[in-house]
Amino acid sequence: MNELAESWPARFTIMVFSALILIFTGLLMLPIASAEGVTTPLVNAFFTAMSAICVTGLTVVDMASHWSAFGNIVIVLGIQIGGIGVLTVASLLGLAVSRRLGLKQRLLAASDTNPMRAHHGPVSESQTVGLGEIGGLLSAVLFSVLAIESMLTLLIFPRLLMMGEDVLTALWHSFFFAASAFTNTGFVPTADGMTPFETDPYMLTVLGIGVFLGSIGFPVIFALYRFAKVRGWKRPSRFPLHAKLTLLTTAVLIILGALAIGALEWSNGDTLGEQTIGQRFLSSMFMSTMTRSGGLATLDVEQMNGSTLLVMDMLMFVGGGSASTAGGIKVTTLAVLFLAAFAEARGYQDIQAFERRIPTEVLRVAVSVVLWAATIVATSSIILLHMTKAPLDHVLFDVISAFGTCGLSTGLTENLPDAGKYVIAATMWAGRVGTVTLAAAVAASSRSQFFRRPEERPIVG
C-alpha cells in the first residue's frame, strides 16, 4: 500500500475515495441509521453515501424523515470529508502517522491544489501554493473549515430560533446548513426544505456567502489570508494568478448567470413571476450562486423554462474553483480557454493574463479536462435517455448536476429505477474524483519521448 501511494498517488487517491464510499454505504445500511430502524436498501444507501462523499446533494430518499440522528451524523461526517478533499485528508493522515510531512506527502497535498505538479512534473509558472507551504495549506484547510462553518452556524442559529425551533434542534440544523453550504453539498435537514427561506434576504445571503467561500477553493482562501496577514491588503496586485482568475471568473459567471435567470424567468408564474421586483433579483442571484455547486434551490427547477435550464447547465458544467468543495471543469479551466482564444484572435504567441504568461501545458490540460467532462456527460445522458425516455432537458440537467456535484434537480433523479441511480452515482464519482486525476490514474505514467516527428498542420475550423 505504501509503495502504491508513493508510486501512483492518483490511483491511491481513487482507492481511498472509493473505499470511503463503501464504508459509508455500510454505515447507512445499518438499521440504526434509519428513523424507522430498518435496513436501507443497498442502492439508496450507496447513492446517499456517494452524494455525501462527492458533496453533491442529490437524493433518492427524504433526507428529513428517512435518516435517524446516527444517519444524519454519518452524512455530515461524509460531506465534511468530501468537502475537505480526499487528497488533503490522505495528506493529513500521513502527517498524523509520521509526525512530519515528507516530500511524497507534500506532493500528494500539492496535487490537490495544482494537479499539474503531480501529473506533469515541474511547471514553469508561479505555483498557487509552493511545496514548502503545504504544511501551512493543510493548517489553513482545517482552520478555514472550522472558522467558516462556525461563523455560518452562529449566523444561522438565531434565525432558526425565531422560526420556533428549540435550542438544540436549532443548533444542529444551523450546523447542518452551515456544513452543507460551505461544502457545496446542498443537503437540507428540515422537513420543509428551503421553502421557508424562499424570499428571506438574511438567510439566503448567509447561505450564498457560505457557498461562495466553499466554491473559490482552499488555495484562494489561503492566498487571501496570507496577503491580508503579511501585506495588509496593500498590494493586491501581487495576488497569485490562480486567485485572480478564480475570483474574477466566479464573479462574472455569478452576475451573468443571475441576469440570465432573472430575464428568462421574469414572467414565469411558477418561479419568479409572483415575486416582487426585489425578491426576483434576490432569487436570481441566489440561484446563480447555487450553480457554482451549492445545490440549495429556492425555485422549482422542474417548472423553469427550457432556456433557463440550458443556461444553468452551462454554469453547473463550469462549477467552482480548483481544489474547492465545488465540482465541474472549474472556472480557471474556462478562463484559460477564453484567454487562449483571445490570444489567438490577437495573434499573440503566448497566453497572457495580468502581466503573466500561461504555459501551453496548462492549455493542453484544460482542453483534456473539457473533453473528458463532455464525454462523461454525454455517455451518462445517452444511457439515461434510453433507459427512462424522459425529456432531454431534464436528463441533461440532472446529469450535469451530478457531474458538477451541484445537487440541483428537475425531480428526475429521485424517480429513477435502480439502474439509473447507479448511473447518476457513477457520474458523481467521476465528477468529484476529477477528470485530470482520473485520466492520470488510467494513464498510470507519462512517457518521455526523445525525438520529434516531422511537422504537418491539418486544416482546423
UniProtKB/TrEMBL annotation:
Q: List membrane-spanning regions.
A: 12-30, 42-61, 73-97, 134-157, 169-190, 202-225, 245-264, 314-342, 362-387, 422-444
**What are the record keywords, sorted?**
Cell membrane, Ion transport, Membrane, Transmembrane, Transmembrane helix, Transport
Look up and give the membrane topology term.
Multi-pass membrane protein
Xref: PANTHER family: KTR SYSTEM POTASSIUM UPTAKE PROTEIN B, TRK SYSTEM POTASSIUM UPTAKE PROTEIN TRKG-RELATED
According to its UniProt entry, this protein's organism is Lysinibacter cavernae
Q: Which GO terms describe its cellular component?
A: plasma membrane
Q: Spell out the protein name for this chain.
A: Trk-type K+ transport system membrane component
Native organism taxonomy: Bacteria, Bacillati, Actinomycetota, Actinomycetes, Micrococcales
Q: Sorted alphabetically, which InterPro entries does this protein's record hold?
A: Cat_transpt
Select a single GO molecular function from the record's annotations and give it: monoatomic cation transmembrane transporter activity
The cellular location(s) given in this protein's UniProt record come to:
Cell membrane
Q: Name one GO biological process term.
A: metal ion transport
